[in-house]
Specification:
Blueprint: H1 2-22, E1 61-73, E2 76-91, E3 94-109, E4 115-117, E5 123-127, E6 132-138, E7 146-148, E8 153-160, E9 169-176, E10 183-190
Antiparallel strand pairs: 1-2, 2-3, 3-8, 4-7, 5-6, 5-9, 6-8, 9-10
């Protein structure tokens, strides 16, 4: 029954459409639109604004001290290569220059499987007065936090807002999350 009803509706629709096309009555149809060409004026010439290229030189890094001390545990080997202060624009590439304490690291996955390590959130410096200084930001040109492929080695640096300059012995600590408790790698260095 429904199929018969739909067939009748379709036949009526087609017959009304065809009768309107054949009748020749142009009063109800709209003429085809006409097109006009766009004016052929040349595009205005513009001068490009000068581009600023980010500096390719490393920000000033001073009062540095080579450390080259490693600790390995939990399947990772972390080496503190160098420490010191560096000056950089406050907002990465713009802003007033500011100075922070920088730690250059080399991190190696010792296991031939993907593993994760996060020095951006799981590391800190403890001075000889037991004051804990958290990471301020990861300033690496390469990201040293995250998932490492098997046996992958990365170098980069992390930045601390400050450290206690009245303290001479510092311990860089990084915690590696495991199924039980975090494994801590501790690297002691003397600064200044």
């Amino acid at each position: 029954m429904k199929l018969r009803f739909l067939s009748i509706i379709l036949i009526l629709f087609v017959s009304i459409f065809v009768s309107g096309c054949i009748s020749g009555d142009d009063s109800t149809t709209t003429p085809a639109p006409t097109t006009t060409l766009a004016p052929t004026t040349p595009a205005p010439t513009t001068t490009l604004a000068p581009t600023t290229i980010p500096p390719t030189t490393i920000p000033p890094y001073y009062d540095t001290k080579d450390v080259n001390v490693s600790d390995d545990n939990g399947g990772f080997k972390v080496t503190v290569i160098k420490v010191g202060y560096f000056t950089h624009p406050k907002y990465h590439i713009v802003g007033q220059e500011t100075t922070h304490f920088r730690v250059d690291l080399e991190i190696e996955n010792l296991i031939n499987a993907k593993r994760s390590i996060y020095p951006n959130i799981n590391s800190y410096i403890v001075d000889d007065q037991s004051v804990r200084w958290p990471v301020y930001f990861v300033g690496s040109p390469t990201d040293i936090s995250g998932e490492y492929d098997g046996l992958e080695v990365r170098q980069g640096y992390i930045v601390f807002e400050a450290i206690n300059e009245n303290s001479s012995t510092h311990t860089y600590t990084i915690e590696i999350p495991t199924m039980n408790l975090p494994v801590k790698l501790k690297i002691e260095f003397v600064y200044p």
